[in-house]
Amino acid sequence: ILGVEDMTFTYGDAPVELYPSTSQGFPVIIRSLLPSSFTVEGNILTIVGAGSGQMSFTHLGNDYYMAQMKTVNITVYKATQTGFSFANLERAVGDPAIQFPAVSEQGFSISYNSSNTNVATVSGNSITIVGQGESTIQASNQGNYNYNPIDESFTLTVSPQPKQEQTISNF
Questions:
Q1: 29-80, pLDDT tens digit by residue?
Q2: Is the pTM of this model over 0.85?
């Protein structure tokens, strides 16, 4: 059986059309040996979950050629969650609270923590500035069987409130 090798995918990849063949032109039957990660309908492979397994390719032969089967390994990796990005921030004492995404685009809740609650406190997905200094903000979630967890951090630097100009009048 020609044109079949071990394959790797990522959860969320588009369906793939497979073109196995034999040197004699026999039809090839494709079968998924792990339907929880991928399915095969005709010659279309569709990813349905992360995991690994095997796929078999079989031709039945005829009076002159023996039947043949080839098994290949299929690996489907977890996808990366999307819908958020974190960069270092600079703010001043007295600035309004900062709102971050409460969930990833895949629907998983994101938790936030502040390393220095004298600078910033966290309530849900809102970060409130409480004082001058630096705090590392940690954003995380567990992911699931098909998606990798989030575990990212960024630095929030808070400067003192800028002094306002005073106007003296009525001399």
A1: 998 887 789 999 989 999 999 999 999 999 888 888 888 999 999 999 999 9
A2: no
Are residues 51 and 73 in contact, defined by beta-carbon separation less than 8 angstroms?
Answer: no
Q: Which of 83, 77, 3 is nearest to 47 (CA)?
A: 77
Q: pLDDT per residue over 96-117, tens digit each?
A: 999 999 999 899 999 999 999 9
Distance CA 7, CA 76 (A): 9
Q: Environment class of residue 17 by beta-carbon count within 10 Å: exposed (0-12), middle (13-18) or buried (19+)? A: exposed
